[in-house]
Design brief:
Oligomer: single chain
CATH architecture: 4-Layer Sandwich
Radius of gyration: 17 Å
Number of domains: 1
Distance between the termini: 21 Å
Structural class: alpha+beta
Helix content: 25-40%
Length: 155
C-alpha cells in the first residue's frame, strides 16, 4: 500500500508493460518462482526447488523474492551456500542472489551476485551499507516499526 501511495502513476503503467520473466541464452530471470507465474511463491527448500525445475527449460534460473541467497543444483539433492561456484554446464540451477534491500537471512549486509557468461562462474557478494540510515528513513516514511527494526538484523 505504501509503495502505491508514493509511486507515480506513469511508473505503475510502465511496470505493467514489463514481462514477468526474461529468458536469454539459457538463462531465465524471474522475480520469484517460475512454477507459479505470475504469482510470488518462495523457493526455500529442496522440495520447492525440485517442483520448480520442472517448470523451466533454461540451464539457470535467477530468482529473488525471498531475499535469501542460495543455490539449488538439479543433480541429486545438492544445495550450496553461496560464495563463488563454477557452474557445471551438465546440470541445471536455481540461484537466488539475495537482496540489496532488506536481506532476510540473518545477515544485514546487502547481497548480490555476479554471473560470468563466459566462464560460467557465479559469485555472491555481501557488502556493508548503512542499515541504520535505511532504518531511520523507513521510520520517517511512517512505515511500521518492525520494518525499521528487521533491516538492522537482516530478518
Amino acid at each position: 500500500m505504501h509503495t502505491r501511495s508514493v509511486i507515480k502513476p506513469e511508473y505503475v503503467e510502465y511496470f505493467k508493460t514489463l514481462p514477468n520473466s526474461y529468458s536469454t541464452e539459457g538463462l531465465l530471470f524471474i522475480h520469484a518462482s517460475p512454477l507459479a507465474l505470475p504469482g510470488y511463491k518462495y523457493i526455500l527448500t529442496l522440495e520447492a526447488a525440485k517442483e520448480n525445475f520442472d517448470s523451466f527449460t533454461e540451464k539457470i534460473c535467477f530468482i529473488g523474492h525471498s531475499h535469501r541467497p542460495v543455490i539449488f543444483e538439479e543433480h541429486g539433492s545438492n544445495v550450496f551456500n553461496i560464495d563463488c561456484v563454477n557452474i557445471d554446464r551438465k546440470y541445471r540451477y536455481i540461484i537466488n542472489t539475495g537482496s540489496i534491500g532488506q536481506p532476510r537471512d540473518a545477515d544485514p549486509r546487502l547481497s548480490f551476485g555476479l554471473f560470468d557468461t563466459e566462464t560460467y562462474k557465479y559469485c555472491n557478494y555481501r557488502v556493508e551499507y548503512s542499515a541504520e540510515s535505511a532504518s531511520k528513513k523507513i521510520l520517517l516514511e511512517g512505515l511500521p516499526v518492525f520494518l525499521a527494526e528487521r533491516i538492522l538484523k537482516g530478518v
